[in-house]
Each structure stands twice: as structure tokens, then as C-alpha cells.
Specification:
- With 207 residues, the chain is an all-alpha fold.
- The protein has two domains: 5-65, Homeodomain-like (Arc Repressor Mutant, subunit A), CATH 1.10.10; 75-199.
- It contains ten helices and no strands.
- Helix 1 crosses helix 2, helix 4 packs parallel to helix 8 (120-145) and helix 6 packs parallel to helix 9 (153-174).
- The longest helix is centred in the first third of the chain and has 35 residues, at 2-36.
- It is elongated and about 60 Å long.
- It starts with a helix and ends in an 8-residue tail after the last helix.
- GO terms for molecular function: DNA-binding transcription factor activity; transcription cis-regulatory region binding.
- Pfam families: TetR_N.
Length: 207
């Protein structure tokens, strides 16, 4: 009896491990497909075939495609790349990364947004991840490292991410001759602007 109980426990552990492995494989395959195709171009059947699982298993784990897409969105790598520098050089590092990172990088915020084709539920998931992975992190660094306490650190973080997103959009969609521009003066101008936002004060209210 004890032996059978041990066998059952071991079998349950193996089943749980298999389920976890399948779930990770589904997320990874979905992320790879969403890197190459838009949200509406990728079906649950496509993801199931890539992950070597059944579509009903995907529904069991994630309910629908929007929930699965949400699991593929992660801006922690984007955050690590954007904000790798020490605080006095944070603006320069973030602008340099925005101007030079590959468009197809899986962590690219603009790439992820364009993949959704404007699908509302997916955009809501992206907004939540931007807040948690980027804005909250940056606000905490501002709170702890900036030379001035005002304006509000969260407001500064929001403005900084908006500036970087706008620069990334301009690079990708706004100017067909962007690749021909001399990026050094552009980088330096945006870096000074961004660092001013991050540093804060002179002399508030919301400079």
C-alpha cells in the first residue's frame, strides 16, 4: 500500500513536470510566432503545431489567445537594456539604445505594440507590462538616485518612457530617411532632454 502511494505520488510529480514543460514550450513558441507575425495572423492551431501540443491543451492552460499573448509580453529585458547606465548617464544610454536596438528585438516595445494590430485586450496587457516592467522600475530609480525630489518621480518616469517610445516610433515609421541622418546630434539632443526629465526640478512645478 505504501509502495503504491509512493508510485502515485511520483506519477503526479512527473505529470506536473510535463504540464509545466508543455506550458513553457507553448509560451516560447507563441513568442517566436508573434515576433514574426501579427496577432491576427497567428492562430491557436499555428501555436499548437509549433509547440507539438493540441489546441485544446492551450485553451486549458490559457483560455484564449489574448491571455496567451499576455504571457509572451515581457519588457524586463527592454528595461535592462534601456537603463543599464548609472544615473548621470541614464538619458544618454537609453537614447543610444533606442536609436540602435534592432527593430525585431523580442523585447522591443514598439514591435510588440505593432504586433497586436490594435486588438483591445492585448493592448491592455501591454499597457500593464509597460507600467510594471518599465515605468515602476524607472520611477523607483528616480526616487532613489535623482538629484531633485520634484516633480513626482512617477510623472517623470511616464514622461521619459513616452519620449523614448516617440523616438522609437519616429525611427521605425515616421521618417523614411531616418537611416541616413547623422545620429550623433540627434542622440545628444534627446539625451540632454531625457536626462533633464529624469533629474527633475529646475524649478518645478512639472518643469
Amino acid at each position: 500500500m505504501t509502495h503504491l502511494g509512493a508510485d502515485n505520488f511520483e506519477q503526479e510529480a512527473i505529470s506536473a513536470s510535463d504540464a509545466g514543460s508543455a506550458k513553457r514550450r507553448i509560451v516560447q513558441c507563441a513568442r517566436e510566432l508573434f515576433t514574426r507575425y501579427s496577432f491576427n495572423q497567428v492562430s491557436l492551431k499555428d501555436i499548437a503545431e509549433a509547440a507539438h501540443v493540441s489546441a485544446p491543451l492551450i485553451v486549458k492552460h490559457f483560455v484564449n489567445k489574448s491571455n496567451l499573448f499576455a504571457q509572451t509580453v515581457d519588457f524586463k529585458n527592454s528595461c535592462a537594456n534601456l537603463f543599464a547606465e548609472d544615473f548621470p548617464h541614464l538619458g544618454l544610454g537609453a537614447v543610444q539604445e533606442t536609436l540602435t536596438a534592432p527593430h525585431t528585438a523580442p523585447y522591443s516595445m514598439i514591435r510588440v505594440i505593432t504586433v497586436t494590430d490594435g486588438e483591445d485586450e492585448s493592448m491592455a496587457h501591454i499597457g500593464a507590462r509597460i507600467r510594471e516592467d518599465l515605468i515602476d522600475y524607472l520611477a523607483e530609480r528616480i526616487r532613489n538616485e535623482a538629484p531633485y525630489h520634484t516633480p513626482d518621480p512617477y510623472l517623470r518616469a511616464q514622461c521619459a518612457i513616452a519620449l523614448l517610445a516617440g523616438l522609437s516610433m519616429m525611427r521605425r515609421f515616421g521618417d523614411p530617411e531616418f537611416a541616413e541622418l547623422d545620429l550623433v546630434p540627434l542622440r545628444d539632443y534627446y539625451a540632454r532632454t531625457l536626462q533633464g526629465i529624469l533629474d527633475g526640478d529646475p524649478e518645478s512645478p512639472a518643469h
